[in-house]
């Protein structure tokens, strides 16, 4: 199977610096070209500047809807990236499908499950 992650541009969004740094290292080791944003506002600005293949975002940052605002901004792009939302709040995560995300995972996220979900989304893109 060909490696589709090479050169695959991913925007990682989380307001928790340790989570952002850890996930960035994990995703880079998987071959992704990772750019990070530490807020929904910064993520929306990044989406206006760069075309991404995938967006992985926390839901609750500067507001409880910040992650879904990032998903909507991603979906408004000409080349729509695949979107994955992460949250420690099950009541927020329940709406990922109706909010337009391609997948949702509960935090703390099991790394093998996260990678399997990302690779599945990449394959199905």
List keywords for this structure.
125 residues, 5 strands, alpha/beta, globular, 5 helices, Rossmann fold
The count of DSSP E runs of length 2 or more, i.e. the number of strands, is 5
Fraction in beta strands? 15-25%
- The CATH architecture comes to 3-Layer(aba) Sandwich
- CATH homology superfamily name: Response regulator
Low-pLDDT parts are none
Calculate the terminal CA-CA distance, rounded to whole Å. 15 Å
The CATH class:
Alpha Beta
Count helical runs.
Answer: 5
Shape: globular
Helix content: 40-55%
Question: Main sheet?
Answer: 5 strands, parallel
Protein topology:
Layout: E1 9-13, H1 17-29, E2 33-37, H2 40-49, E3 54-58, H3 66-75, E4 82-87, H4 90-93, E5 103-106, H5 111-124
Helix pairs in contact: 2-3
Structural overview:
This protein has 125 residues and is α/β, with parallel strands linked by helices. The chain has a single domain (9-124), classed as Rossmann fold. Helices cover 41% and strands 20% of the residues. The chain has helices spanning 17-29, 40-49, 66-75, 90-93, 111-124, and strands at residues 9-13, 33-37, 54-58, 82-87, 103-106. The protein has a five-stranded parallel beta sheet, with helices on both faces. Helix 2 (40-49) packs parallel to helix 3 (66-75). It is globular. The two termini are 15 Å apart. The model has no long low-confidence stretch (mean pLDDT 93).
């Amino acid at each position: 199977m060909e490696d589709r992650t090479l050169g695959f541009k991913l925007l990682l969004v989380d307001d928790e610096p340790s989570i952002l740094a850890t996930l960035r290292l994990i995703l880079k080791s998987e071959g992704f070209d990772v750019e990070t944003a530490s807020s929904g506002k910064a993520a929306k600005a990044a989406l206006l500047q760069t075309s991404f293949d995938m967006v992985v975002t926390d839901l609750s940052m500067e507001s409880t809807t910040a992650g879904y605002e990032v998903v909507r901004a991603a979906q408004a792009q000409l080349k729509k990236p695949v979107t994955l939302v992460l949250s420690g709040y099950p009541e927020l995560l329940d709406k990922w499908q109706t909010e337009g995300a391609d997948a949702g995972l509960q935090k703390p996220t099991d790394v093998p499950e996260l990678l399997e979900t990302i690779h599945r989304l990449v394959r199905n893109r």
